[in-house]
Write a sequence for this structure.
């Protein structure tokens, strides 16, 4: 797949922490209940942790109890791509940033209304911007 932001492994390693590199660029998963944003309720916007592309609003975040930041929707459906993932003998749908191709997490069908979706996202794949006070 071709992406607007294209960096070599060395270039990504230079700007990402080792953990962020592993999750974003090697499709890793942070351990449940260890991420920075799992319980965050602060109003604001969540961007891609690799390329800063806007992905989620805090208004789409909810407490799923699964141990990772969970959202029932996304800011723009064109900003996140869904890719079949059959690793580990499971049929899952992976979510990647459409701007840089980095791994974000997976999407499941056990979310709350209105979508019924659970976007299960690694904290380390996100960068949070608290809403500016107007
Ligand atoms: Fe990105």
């Amino acid at each position: 797949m071709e992406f607007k932001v294209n960096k070599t492994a060395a270039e990504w390693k230079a700007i990402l922490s080792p953990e962020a590199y592993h999750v974003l660029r090697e499709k890793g998963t942070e351990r449940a209940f260890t991420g920075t944003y799992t319980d965050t309720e602060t109003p604001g916007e969540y961007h891609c942790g690799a390329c800063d592309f806007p992905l989620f609003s805090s208004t789409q975040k909810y407490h799923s109890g699964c141990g990772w930041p969970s959202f029932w929707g996304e800011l723009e459906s064109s900003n996140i791509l869904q890719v079949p993932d059959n690793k580990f003998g499971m049929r899952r749908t992976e979510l990647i940033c459409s701007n840089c191709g980095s791994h974000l997490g997976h999407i499941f069908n056990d979310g709350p209304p209105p979508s019924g979706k659970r976007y299960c996202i690694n904290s380390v794949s996100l960068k949070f911007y608290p809403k500016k006070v107007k």
The mean pLDDT is 96. Strands lie at 44-48, 54-57, 61-62, 70-71, 80-85, 92-97, 103-108, 118-121, 126-130. The chain has one domain: 32-130.
